[in-house]
Amino acid sequence: MIFRGKVWRLGDNIDTDLIISGKYLSSTDPHFLAEHCFEALEKEWCKKISAGDILVAGKNFGCGSSREHAPLAIKGAGISCIIAESFGAIFFRNAINLGLPVIELAAATTRFKEGDIAEVSLVDGKIKNITQDKIYDFIPMPSIVLEILKAGGLLQFISKEK
Amino acid sequence: MGMTITQKILAAHSDNPKVNSGDIISINIDVILGNDISAFLAIKELEKIGKPKIQAANKIILVLDHFTPNKDVTTAEQCRILREFAQEVGINYFFEGGRAGIEHALLPEEGLVVPGDLVIGGDSHTCTYGALGAFAMGVGSTDLAAAMVLGKTWLKVPETILIEYKGNLGEWVGGKDLILYTIGKIGTDGALGKTIEFRGPVIQSLDVENRLTMTNMAIEAGAVNGIIEPDNVTRDFLINRVRREAIYYKSDTDAIYESKLEINVSSISPQVALPFSPGNVASVKEVEGTKIDQVFIGSCTNGRIGDLRVAAKILKGRRAHSGIRLLISPATPKIYRQALEEGLLKIFSEAEAVILPPSCGVCFGGHLGILAKGEVCLSTTNRNFLARMGHPESKVYLASPAVAAASAIRGQITHPSSII
């Protein structure tokens, strides 16, 4: 449960319409959704993402619509985890349910520059900014959440438990 | 210490006689709502783990309202799969075609949500039902899937922000203006992860439709749920609609609130949310004259009969400005029929409006009324995010049906009092 990757920065109030536009919600294919992720901000955004990269955003990330296609698109693009100052409540649940780690970190956007290399240890509750040689603590997730993330999502977790 | 209405409903649906904010609890659900987007993904997720038995079929309501009437072959296939799922599982409350309409207008109309209920729905505007004194929370498709299987879910008991509305409502000011004003004041994360309890003499004076408009947009301030104590207005609305027992909870006088806010409505005039946030709010007067290309009146926020009556009052004997497209969508078939019987559709037709079928399509940019590059829409919906209704370089302003109708006539953002 350690993720290491390049940081991509976003601002405050990133809504789920921006993550994946309503017109694409007739698809449930993570790769198709990833191709259109953040499309209104930048065409072919997902092409610059390498597997394991990390999103760092401001407050209220994932606000708006409950569309689970939003975390599905981000995960499909290869993002390993999202660090934000706060999250929309529905998005937060959806991300964990899909096995995409979401971490709250105060002043996150001031602690990372785009292109920094970050390393996140979910079990220890540590975020390292390797580039700037700094370490930040977050409250480690409860074991149940870690188990869900490890299984790859809530439904995978439930089917393993059976 | 006492409990808030939200805490009481949550406690009644959990194993605990009393709950406190921050407690993580397991809750039994009364109503599980899904639509053609969220329930389709939920079914796909369940297929991946071998289609477990749906234990809560009697609590499920499916409404095909987003990409309907079917937009294309893909969405038609999705509706077919949902229809087959409903038959296979034995879901009695399955709505489509001329019996469907927009879910959050349909369920109250059909009496499918009662005060004291615990509702979860695969749609963020599920919070609408708080206007009836229910706890109602939007979820994603995995939570929806798990709820359909188990009839239960979990949550962290939210803290409550109490907002009390006092004073006298001005002319052309209603639920939409109050909620826009409120979001403008507290911000789109002002109630993040919390409950908003709307209270006070002004709320009591509002009809259920205006209350539904307010709780509908609680999510736009980040709230888990918005709620209003049910009263005699609620009771009157529910007569002849409801077949289940309702419980009229009230917050205790010594309930604990995270914060309290008082809003004097006397100075509030018609409000508009400017692009690209429902929290970017100004008074109509500040933006009067802004040119628009399209006006949309409809949605789960403002597509009910009262909304159409207000629009008709302003549009009667007048025509939409030649430079704009006016789209009007009654939110359900019953509302459509009522509008027909009351002569409202004739007024709209004579005003050269396009009368659309009930659908969520326009509001979320799914289909119907998509905006081109550079176009501006004034809409009675709930979200004006970047590219929400079409091209990334289009813009959406949010306002009440009165402001929308007045603006349609002038082709620019207009205060209703300058028309009548």
Question: Could you explain how this protein is built, in words?
Answer:
- The complex is a heterodimer of chains A (162) and B (420).
- With 162 residues, chain A is α/β, with parallel strands linked by helices.
- Chain A has one domain (2-161): Aconitase, domain 4.
- Chain A is built from seven helices and seven strands, in the order E-H-H-E-H-E-H-E-H-E-E-E-H-H.
- Chain A has helices at residues 16-19, 30-35, 69-76, 89-97, 108-111, 143-151, 154-161; strands at residues 2-9, 54-57, 81-84, 102-104, 117-121, 126-129, 134-137.
- Chain A has a seven-stranded mixed β-sheet.
- In chain A, helix 6 packs across helix 7.
- The model of chain A has no long low-confidence stretch (mean pLDDT 96).
- Chain B is of the alpha/beta class and 420 residues long.
- Chain B folds into two domains: 5-263, 2-Layer Sandwich (Aconitase, domain 3); 273-418, Aconitase, domain 3.
- Chain B is 31% helix and 18% strand.
- Chain B is built from 15 helices and 18 strands.
- Chain B has a five-stranded parallel β-sheet. In chain B, strands 16-15-14-17-18 form a five-stranded parallel β-sheet.
- In chain B, strand 3 (60-63), helix 3 and strand 4 form a beta-alpha-beta unit.
- The longest helix of chain B has 17 residues, at 73-89.
- The chains are: A alpha/beta (162), B alpha/beta (420).
- The A-B interface holds A 13, 15, 17-18, 21-23, 25-28, 39-40, 59-60, 63-69, 71, 86, 88-90, 93-94, 97-98, 153-156, 158-159 and B 37-38, 40-41, 44-46, 48-50, 52, 66-67, 71-72, 74-75, 78, 122-124, 126, 138-143, 145-146, 188-189, 192-193, 219-220, 222, 224, 277, 364-367, 370, 383, 385-388, 392.
